[in-house]
Structure prediction request, 208 residues.
Amino acid sequence: MIPFDVLTVFFVAAIALGLAPGPDNIFVLTQSALYGRLAGFVVTLGLCTGLIVHSVAVALGVAAIFQTSELAFTLLKFVGAAYLLYLAFQAFRAGETALPGKNGPALSMRALYRRGIVMNVTNPKVAIFFLAFLPQFADPARGAVPLQILMFGAFFILATILVFGGVALGGGVLGSFLKRSPKAQIWLNRLAGLVFVGLAVRLAVAER
Prediction:
């Protein structure tokens, strides 16, 4: 059993990490502004699904591959960068009709959820971060370390949902104002495209 004080310290650290500006919360913000706060929540659930994958990978030791194998790290990060560039291309092509209106959002909730998963799973930096962060709080004296890793991963996901849920709400409020202006909608799509390009470059040049 993990002591309450250890879980508290871990949860506070996870909240602080979620609040720090980074690619994931920027991603949630732009998607919420474009497609509404519900879309932001769905993207957040997709990102958290990716965190489940990373937590299991750390518990099983699979994440260590990305820390030791330059080839695996490089392949995964370029897949992620290519996907972000694809999203940027879609955003640059989009006009005002890409935003939610009377006929509903242009993207389905399934597509937004999938975006969150791919965005997170294809980022090897997240796998390496979890590999370095989660085991610090595990103690073999408390029992099976893989089970502790999974529990810490679950608490990290809870913190992410709380923080990113707030980001989604704020982005949705921003988007509701911008929806009133077709020109603002178009510029918001262009801004989202630039964000995707920036995230793609950041991922492509990332080192272990």
